[in-house]
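Board notes, transcribed. Complex of a protein with magnesium ion.
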Amino acid sequence: MYIKKIYLKNFRNYSEAEIFLSEKLNVFYGNNAQGKTNILEGIFLGAIGKSFKPVSEKEMIKLGEKFSDIELEYFSGGRDMTTKMRLFTEKKKTVSINNVALSRMSELVGKLTVVVFTPEELSLVKEGPGARRRFLDMAISQVRPRYMHLLSSYNKALEQKNKLLKNEKMKNSVNDTLPIWNEQLAQFGAKVILYRKNFADKIVKKAAEIHEEISGGTEKLTAKYHGSLQDTENMTEEEVKAALFEEMTRQAEREIFLSQAVVGPHRDDLVFFINGNNAKIYASQGQQRTIVLSLKLSQKELFLEETEEEPVLLLDDITGELDLSRREYLFSKIKNSQVFITCTDTDRIENTEETRYFKIVNGEVIR
Ligand SMILES: Nc1ncnc2c1ncn2[C@@H]1O[C@H](COP(=O)(O)OP(=O)(O)O)[C@@H](O)[C@H]1O
Ligand SMILES: [Mg+2]
């Protein structure tokens, strides 16, 4: 699959931009703070309905404006498609595909799959667990639209439970109402955990092969999904649900004391190991980046298997983050994909007939 055209209006620092793309390599270059990353963010948003950064929709609308348009024309599933999205300052965004309005965001995902490499994500291993959950959630959502819907149901129930735990007036009746919310959270939570574990197993298995290749056979990558429940190995969904509910009941007093829900997949993590040692603690920065590079390439492979099409790749400022050998490895593996790269100088970018360059100056695209 590939994107033919991007149209942005009042998006970030762009008043209006129309960009006609190469099916292969697209390079956005220019000085810092000109709007290069913003374009990748616009593509990601148009494909998935969310930014790859933890920001609100409002922040993405050009300062002083009331709405923002993001339109993508692309070729996917053997046909031409158009996604139109409008963000508003005061209400929820609207989205249409081929001029048919969508009622849920989960109807958007999967049409245009994207894998993004950002400098922030290259430090995924050493960041807090939230970053790793986001990585898993975004990746799963793209190939399992039902997961996106499930996750939002879980988050809504979680928000309600937290509201209840924070509300002083409700404290007296909390023992009656808490089990009702726990029941629902355990039900959604069990599904979330199983989706994540299943996906983590698949993506890590492939990533381990890639990591081994990059490290010249010296490093073995493994990972463990780490959560509220000690061991969910071989458990059915019903069993995970029952175990979650039991743990919530056991921790109820603590949750009431802390005024927040502490049991459930919103606290889970994916822990990486190199040769059996916790990578967050023992791996060098280079090794940690190799883990993320391997994960991302593995994600690309999984998407290809799932959709039978190469996902679009967004590479944000990676020249400074990956050394030459890792960059060469990366480029050797993504030859069949449409690629978007941002950089400050184009010296180190492979120039082919199909490469298209765009100079970005203060929210304007110059060809
Ligand atoms: N909502 C917004 N409205 C207007 N300008 C914005 C908005 N959000 C970010 N910017 C501007 O976008 C620029 C950063 O763009 P970015 O794509 O990150 O730059 P870079 O070229 O370094 O990747 C900054 O100048 C910032 O002030
Ligand atoms: Mg940038």
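The chain has eleven helices and 15 strands. The pocket of magnesium ion (ligand 2) is lined by residues 36-37, 316-317, 342 (CB under 6 Å).
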